Amino acid sequence: MEVRFFNGGHCRQLQAFVDRRTWRIAPFFAVFLAVRHPARGWVLIDTGYSDGFAAATRRWPACLYRWTTPVTATASTADILRRAGIDPAAIRDIVLTHFHADHIGGVKDFPAARFHHGAEALEPLLKLSAFAQTRHAFLPALLPGDFAARAAAVPLAGFRPHPQLGMPAHDLFGDGSLTLVSLPGHAPGHLGVFFETPAGPLLYAADAYWHHRQIEDSTAPLPPARIFIHDNRAYDATVAQLRRLARAGLALAACHCPHTQRHVAAPG
Ligand SMILES: [Zn+2]
User: Looking at the domain assignment, is residue 32 inside a domain?
Assistant: First the structure.
């Protein structure tokens, strides 16, 4: 299937957090994908920050997110797609790999879409206090009021071991086109998506790792970055499995990895 990568805004952070050889402030792009399904049309994987992020972080305690993570996101996710020739009103399906603000920022741009996500991804975040939600990079104001009615939560109990990936997986549409893959650790219920592209199979790992050096050289994130990891033991086990798959020749891509920028048509 045809796949397109987009930048949905970016934040600036010390790159050494995820690549300890590089001590400079660098942009971390919030990449999202559009995959062209033969019957369902363009399916989105995540939605970037979108321009709604600024409004969602205006009030206490959500403003803490903006103060600690300076974000640049001037275009809406719908406009980014429109400029690329994709009609946002025609989007029927959106996969949300997890509920961090840089992945769900644009969901309000799609009032007719259905949201596919891990059942375990949202519940624990909804139970937190507003302050703890901000600390976990979850801003409920980014979700539309009818989110629950349009959400198709997939429970992990329905996932089965994938013969090639060696991880629990779920065939999203029952046609083998898009496979949700459990990549635990980074956030509750964190998912990747496995699909066929014109260049071969691709496992989009979302935030299962941040930087290609974690896969190539076993570089580990510095402790300050680990504060944002939900389950460090599961995170390390997921990265180890992704490393095995990459060594066996599987193509990987991750949301914030600089290598992913090679796929983005117009980096911004
Ligand atoms: Zn994340």
Answer: yes
Q: What is the CATH number of the domain that holds 148?
A: 3.60.15.10
Residue 165 CA, ligand 1 centroid: distance in Å: 22
CA 257–ligand 1 middle distance (angstroms): 12
Spacing, Cα 146 to ligand 1 middle (Å): 23
**Which two tokens mark 242?**
């992704």
pLDDT in tens, 142-181: 999 999 999 999 999 999 999 999 999 999 999 999 999 9
> What are the CA-CA distances from residue 121 to residues 17, 138, 163, 261 (Å)?
24, 11, 24, 26
Q: Residue 243 Cα, ligand 1 centroid: separation in angstroms?
A: 19
Q: Is residue 268 part of a domain?
A: no
95 in Cβ contact with 181 (< 8 Å): no
- 250: CA distance to ligand 1 center in Å? 22
Query: How much distance in Å is there from the Cα of 101 to the middle of ligand 1?
Result: 8
Residues 5, 244, 185, CA angle at the centre, nearest 5°? 65
Tell whether 90 is covered by a domain: yes
For residue 14, the model assigns a pLDDT of 64
Rounded distance from Cα 36 to ligand 1 centre (Å): 24
Confidence of residue 219 (pLDDT cuts 50, 70, 90): confident
Domain span at residue 143 reads 3-262
Give the count of domains, the chain.
1
pLDDT of residue 74: 79
pLDDT of residue 20: 63
Q: For the whole model, what pTM was predicted?
A: 0.92
Tell me whether residue 267 is in a domain. no
What is the Å distance from ligand 1's center to 85 Cα?
A: 28
